[in-house]
Amino acid sequence: MAIYKRRDGWEVRVYAGVDPVTGKPHRISRQVDGSRRKAEREETRLKAQVMDGRHRGARAKTLAELVDTYLDWREHNDKPIGPRTLQGYRALADARIKPGLGKLRLPQVDPPALDRFYTAALRKNGSLRKPGEPLSASRLRDVHAVISGALALAARYGWISYNPATLVKPPAPQSTKRPMPTKKQARAALQAAERKDPELYLFLRLEATTGLRPGEVCALWWQDFDLDAGDLVVGNNVVHAKGLPGGYVRKRTKSLHGDDRPIALGKTTSALLKEHRARCEARAREWGGQLAPDAYVFSADEAGRRPLRVDTMTRRFGELAKELGHGYTLYGFRHFVATQLGAVATTATIRERMGHGSLQVTSGYVHRVSEADREAARHMDALLDRG
Asked: Is the same domain home to 204 and 302?
C-alpha cells in the first residue's frame, strides 16, 4: 500500500493479493485530485473493498487465460475425464476459442458475443484438420462445453456475476447412421484379413463376435481370458495421448457403473486365441523369456508389455477395406454386432454384452422387426393379392 505524489494530484496503490490466473501480484491503482488526506481516505476505502473480496483481478483476466486455468483445473477435479478428451479440448481451445474470443475480458464475454462466435464457426474456418471447412455441430458442442465450464468456474470464484454460456444453446448435432458391414461384407473382410494379416484377422474377429470397442481389444491381457471355458472379462480400455507416461494409459472402460463385464466366446474364436497365445509364447522363449499373465494379447513388442495403438489397427483395417471397396470403418464392426444380435437377444442382453451405459444407447443400434409386424405384412400381402 502506498500513496505517491503526482503532478496533478495523488496516486493510491493497494495490494490485492496474487492473481489466480497469472500468479503475479495484483495491485489496484486510483488517481485522486486534491489533498493527501483525500488520498488517504481513498486508500482506506480500497483496502476495505479488498478485505470484502471485491478485487480479484477480474479486469486482468481474458477468456484465453480463463480457459487455460479451467483446463488445468478440469484435469484433476470434477468428474473423471479421459486424457484423449482433455487433449481434444486443449486443441480446440488453441485452434478455435483463443483466436476467436481469447482477447476478450471476462465482462465482454456475453450471450451475443458467444452467439456470433458460434454462428461464424459453423459457417467458415471451423474444422481443426481442414481449416477451410465449417466446424461440425458436434465439435461446436465440445467448444461450448469448454467455454461454459470455464465461465462456470469463473462465476464460482466470483470473477463474474453469472455464467453467460447458460443462456446460449449451440445447434444440436444431426444424428447420422454409422456405416456398417452387411453379413456378406463382414465375412469378406475377415476372409481377406485371414489371408493377408492374421493378427488383424484375430483382432477383427474378436471385435465382430464380442462387440468390444477397439480400445478394449487393445487393452486385453491374457489373464482376462479363460480359453478352456470360453470366457472373457472386459474391464479396461487403452488410450494413447501426448503427455502420458509411455504415451498411453490403460484405464477403466466405459461399461455400466465401470464394472467388469463377462463375455462368452465361441469355440472357433477360443481356438484361434489359443493358437495366437502359442505363437506369442514361442516368440518369448526365443529370447529366453516367458509370457507374463498381464502381457497384452495384441502387443507392439514380443514381450507383450506395450499395447498396439488403436489408430494403428484403424489404419491397417482402412487399407484392407479400401482394397475390398467397403465403405465402413473399424468401429462399424462393433455396431454390426449390436444389429445382428437383435435377432436372437433382448435389448437388455445386448446392452450388457456391448457395455452400453443405457438402454437408450443400445436402442440406437438395434432396429429389430417383431414377428407380429412380419405377420401383419404377410396378412396385407395376402389381402391385396387375393383373386
From this structure: yes
For the chain, the maximum distance between any two Cα atoms, rounded to a whole number of angstroms, is: 111
Give the number of C-alpha atoms closer than 13 A to the C-alpha of residue 101, restricted to the C-beta side: 28
Which residue range forms the structural domain that includes residue 263?
186-323
Phi-psi region of 221 (alpha: psi -120 to 50; beta: other; left: phi over 0): beta
Does residue 204 sit in the same domain as residue 118? Answer: no
Asked if residue 33 is part of any domain, the answer here is yes
In a domain, 76, yes or no: yes
* Amino acid, single-letter form, for residue 246: G
CA-nearest of 383, 345, 376 to 362 is: 345
Containing 333, the helix (H) or strand (E) segment is: helix 330-341
- Cell representation of residue 200: 488383424
Q: What parts of the chain have a pLDDT lower than 70?
A: 1, 18-23, 51-60, 124-134, 172-177, 254-259, 342-387
2-6 sheet: strands from edge to edge: 2-6, 9-18, 25-32
Residue among 74, 239, 77 nearest 142 (CA): 74
The pTM assigned to this predicted structure is: 0.62
Q: What is the number of domains present in the chain? A: 3
